Amino acid sequence: MGRIVIDTNVWVSRLLIAGSVPARAVDAALARSDVVDSEASVEELADVHSRKKLDRYGSPQDREEFLRRLLQVTTVVPVQSEITVSRDPKGNRLLALALDSGSGCIVSGDDRLLAPNPWRGIEIISPEEFLTNRA
Question: Could you give the domains of the chain?
Fold first, then answer.
């Protein structure tokens, strides 16, 4: 199925709500595709996972283990491109990752990122659309 980028908001939903649509989309992507990450996206996810407000969903150790496992099942790709299509710098980083990794799809729950769909031949879809059209 090629390479896929998963947005931080979808990874966080995967961790917090087992069986949710984002969780099922992540699981399907991991089962059928090469899921790619960048150092910046892993750092962003680590930052989000370190937030105290997530303690009610699992211990900091559980979240650290999630990150370790994520790094075992994804491919970290160097990103060279600088994209300025989105008003959101994080969205631009995801677009650059998709472009530089040769990904055909970004799975995101961010409506602002979904707006330029498709972008340079890269499909930008919600977890629901991914499950319906790709899984």
Answer: 3-133 (3.40.50.1010)
